Structure formats: C-alpha cells, structure tokens
Amino acid sequence: MLRRFLGNPKVGIGLAIIGLFTLVALLGKPFAAEIMGRTPQSIFPEAMGASPSWTHPLGTTSSGQDVFTWMLYGTYNSMFVGFASAIIASAIGIAMGTAAGFLGGAVDRLLNGIILIFQNLPSFPVLIIAATFWREMPLLVVSVLIGLFEWTGGARRIRAQALSLRGRDFTTALRTIGESKLRIVFVEVMPHLFGILSPIFLTLIAAGVGMQASMAMLGIGNAAEPSWGLIINYAFGMNALFRGMWWWFVPPGLCLALLGFATTMVNFGLDEITNPTLSTRRMTLMRRFLKQNRRITPRADASTTPTGAVS
Amino acid sequence: MTTSATSTSPASAAPALDETPSRGRRRVPPNLIFLAKRAVTYLAVFLVSVVLNFVLPRLMPNDPAQSMIRDIYDKTGQRPSEYQMSIIHNMYGDPNASIWEQFWNYLVQLAHLDLGRSIMYYPMKVTDLIVQALPWTVYLGLVSTLLGWLIGTYLGARLGWRPGRLLDTIVTPFAMFFSSIPPFWLGLLLVWYLSYSKGLFPAQGAVNQRVRPAELTNLDWVLSIAYHSLLPLVCLIVVGFTGWLFSMRNMMITTVNEDYVHLARAKGLTPERVRNAYAARNALLPNVTGLAMSMGGVLMAVVLAEAVFIYPGLGGLIGASTAVRDYPLMQALLLIVIVLSLIFNFIADSVYVLLDPRTREGS
C-alpha cells in the first residue's frame, strides 16, 4: 500500500520536498547557532550588502546580517506556523466534522451553519484586523488565528466521511452489541478518517505558511522572529529591489513557491491514485492501445453504429 | 441524435423536464429557497464580521484608543487636539460607557456610513479615501481575473483533450509551479528585473501624473494607465490562470470519455469540432460558475500585489495604514473588503443556481 503511494512520482517528489523543508527547519537553527556561530541578530560590518560568497552563502543584508542564517531561522519559523496552524485546524475540523456527521439532527444543522459562516468569512482581512491591534504578534498567536480560520474545508469533508461511515455495517454492528458512541468514534471511525485527512493536512501546512507570509508582507509579525514572508518584507522595505540585491528576496520566495508546489504535486498524485481516469500514464497507455487496435479493426462505419442513423 | 450531445448539458435539460406540469410547479420554489438560505448565511456572515470588527480591537492586549493617542503624539510631537480626541471617543466609545452603549453607538455610526477620519491623511474622511481607491482595485481585479480565466480555460481544454501528450507533460508541471508562487513575490521579481534592471516598465503608481487631463476620453491618459498596470496584471494572471487550467483539464479528461463524445468522433467530425462543441462545451460549466465565485477571493491577491507596486488601490491603502497603524482606516477597509467579497459570493451563488440545476438537489 505504502509502495503504491510512494511509487507515484508526483507523491514521491512532493513528499521528499516537504520532508527536506521539515529537516532544514529542525536542524537549521542549531546548525546556524552552534556550528556557524551566527544568529539573525549578528551583524558583519565588513560585509554590508555583500553578494553571495563562501563566508556568506546567500550574501548579506544592507545592514550586514547574514541572509543564510536568516533563511535557516526563517524556515524554522515558517514551518512552525505551517505545522501549528495545520494541527489546530485539523483538530477543530475533526471535532466539528465527526460531531456533525455522527450526531446528526439539530447538532448537524447548527454546526453546518457555523461551518458556512466561517467558510464565507474572508479570513485574511479578519487576521489583519487582529494583527493590527496586537503589536508584534507572536508566531504562536499567528498560528492559532490562522488555524481558527482554515478548518472549514477539512470539517466538511470529514463530516461527509463520518456520515457515510455511520451508515456502514460495522458501526451498526458495534452499536447493536452495546458499544458506547465515544468508543466507536475514537477506536473504529478515527482511523478511517486519516486517509482523507492526510492530504488535507499537507494542504493546510502550505496554506498556513502562505497566509503567514502574506501577513508578514504587510508588515505583521515580530521582527525578532524572521520568517520567509518577513525576510521578503524586510528586503522590500530596505530597497533591496532598487539596489538589485536579489540574494536577499529571491530565496525566501523560492522556498514559498517550492513548498506550495510540493503539496500541489502530492495532491495531484493522490488524485491520480484514487481516481485512475486522471492518471496521465494510464491515458497514454490507453491511447497507444487504441491506436494499435485501430490498425487491426477497420474504422467504424457511421451508418452501422448501433445508435442507428447519424446525421 | 445530435440532441443527445446538447441535452446532456444540464442547463438545457431543465426546461425539457419542466414541461410536465406537476414537476414544473414543484421545481421553481427550491431555487428561491436555495437563494434565500444563502442570503441568510451571508447576512449572518456580515453580522459576525461587524461584531468581530467591534470586538477584536477590544480583546487585544494593547488598548487601541491609548495607542492611537500615542501614535498621534509620536507622529506630530503634539498631544491630540480636542477634535482628534472626540474622534477617538467616537471610534472606541467613552471608556466609561458600558460595552452595550459603545456597541449601539458603533452600529448607529455604521448605519450612517460614518467610519471616522483617517489619522494618516487627517482630516480626510475614511469613506472618501476608500471611494477614491476602489476603482483601481476593481480594474486590476476584473481584468486580471477575466484574462486569467480565458487563458486558463483555453489551455485547460487543450491539455485535457489529450492528457499525457507532449503539451500536457510540459505545461502542467509548469502550471503547478506557477500556481504555488506567491503573487506578491512574483511582483517583486518583475519590479526588480524589468523595472529597475532593464528600465522597461514603471516600478510604481497607476498612471503618469503629468498626463492631463485625467479623463477617460483622453487616449494618452488611458494608455498610461494600461502601461502602468501591465506588470501587476501579468503577475496576477500568471498566478491566477493555473486554477482554471487545472479544473478545466480535469473536467475535460472525464468528459472526453463520455458516450456523446465517442459518438461525435464516430460520426467523423473534425477533432477540433468534437473538442470545442462537444467536450469543452460541457466541461465548461464549473469554470463559468467558478468565475463569479472567485471574484471575492481574488481581492486579497490584488491587495498584496498593489502593496508591491505601490498602486493607489485598496491594497496600497491597507499596506500604508497597517504600517502607520491608522486604525479607523484599517477597520473601514477591512469591513469594505468583507462586504465586497460577500457580494461577489452571493452573485456567484445566484449564477450557480441559474446555470446548474444540480445545485438544487444539493441544497
């Protein structure tokens, strides 16, 4: 089963990129601090606005900070927001989705209303309002806020899944032998939800990172906690564009794009696995087969098709 | 038998079914009920956002009224004037008044469309600032969405017609990558390379201020706007067309295997005709309805792109007002953004119901 998933090139490549980012996030900070002996705050006055070199692999900012160190710390912070917001959003999504799908009736209607409201509430503006009033908003708060607005998609899909699981024989059987509802949900149903939850979770990570980057681009966030978005915002504010200091603003954006690309790949791959009609490999094989077939059997004559006369 | 191809399109199937009188009469109300339900939802969302707009500043650790006074002091070096203090009182209420009184006053002001005065552009009214900025954002948003939709849908139809072919294997991964690029970052790259390095395009602004008079009849002025908006539009389109491409491609892949497409092929029609008149025509529906639906979401991408290109639209205002913490302007802007996206979503829902009878079953 696992081989079937990882065997799909899109899923494999996508997961590899996400894994790499996670690894850099985990190891980057201690690497910069312990081995290179640099923090985002350290300043190199002899190399102000220097282009990439061996001592500064990604060059320095106009005030002499090492961009590579910033990127290592930024990867940690961005991925932290991604994972934290995804965990919060999935937790709310699972709770709301299973409650709505399993309890049904009035609870379902009420939760559905809440889901609809949150789904239509544009999250970004509300996040900005919150952030404007909270100066130097800590990353954990940013993650919680993002998580609070991103759970609706997951909740809807989990609700649908829970609804279908409720009608299955094994849950009915458990109920007839007197198993408690809670136990059925936690022990028997939850494992079935992980299948649909994992792609949602990956998408949520990328969405959280992107959302945080967009907020940071508008200057929201703590300057002591560099993230990909904040590095771009800082470069923009310090006129890196006009000075042509591409090493300052290209890498963080590239990381953002790559992370999004990886999740898109995984989702496309999973789509292909679950819905074989979308698989391009299968389509190519089928067309080759049809082409060979056409050579063997003569082309269908319009007048002899089973549908009868064709205009 | 040609009707078999067209009648599978749900829009044209509906009237045929409505001819039986008993069903026809029962079929009209669900439409209205669906829309009414949605309208209630949107009303609820609007109320929630109004309440959030009131509650959030009061939940935050810093007292906004205090920090507003401090901001004014920081910027002007003077204590806020009597008039400014009265505005702050209007915005955040008398601190001694009960929360319900404050909320009532806030609602009364909203009902009068009185959103206070900006701190940054004091004493400009916030509503006037927004009215000036709105046309630019609407222009960027509409043009980029429509062009992105056309490009994406056309390419998607081409790719989905023969998935796995050379064009598909080249274009689709590129589109996947484009779809993940943050629009504001692409904007930065364009400004850096095309504006500053090559000097081909203006790096900021929406129009050359020296071109007069600023009227739609003045061709020079219109051309200057088009020239200035080229980079923001390119950046929004490159990122935006991909969503349409994917949905169109996937719909095409499923449509291509439908019986009526096989029939059309068997009839010996030219591939172009089968593709455009049979497969693409029926695969198009989700993209048509999605177009209206996306208008609300596009707003935020436009806002960020505007911040990069220092475009005089809502995005520029949001960026500037967050930087100097112009609270009255911020709150008004965000309320406007929410209302705009709600309006667009409601239009989308109405269009959806009109075009796709299947939604009624879902409601």
Automatic annotation (TrEMBL), chain A:
It is a multi-pass membrane protein. It is found in: Cell membrane. Its main location: membrane. Pfam families: BPD_transp_1 (PF00528). InterPro entries: BP-dependent_transpt_permease, MetI-like, MetI-like_sf. Gene3D superfamilies: MetI-like. The keyword Cell membrane applies. SUPFAM superfamilies: MetI-like. GO terms for cellular component: plasma membrane. Keywords: Cell membrane, Membrane, Transmembrane, Transmembrane helix, Transport. Residues 75-267 form the ABC transmembrane type-1 domain. The chain crosses the membrane at residues 12-32, 80-103, 110-133, 139-158, 184-209, 246-270. CDD domains: TM_PBP2. One of its GO terms (biological process) is transmembrane transport. Belongs to the binding-protein-dependent transport system permease family. This is Peptide ABC transporter permease.
Automatic annotation (TrEMBL), chain B:
GO terms for cellular component: plasma membrane. Residues 1-23 are annotated as: Disordered. Residues 1-16 have a biased composition (Low complexity). Residues 134-348 form the ABC transmembrane type-1 domain. Keywords: Membrane, Transmembrane, Transmembrane helix, Transport. It comes from the Bacteria. It is a multi-pass membrane protein. It holds the Pfam family BPD_transp_1. GO terms for biological process: transmembrane transport. InterPro entries: MetI-like (IPR000515), MetI-like_sf (IPR035906). It is found in: Cell membrane; Membrane. The chain crosses the membrane at residues 32-56, 136-157, 169-194, 225-246, 291-312, 332-355. This is Peptide ABC transporter permease. It comes from Brachybacterium vulturis.
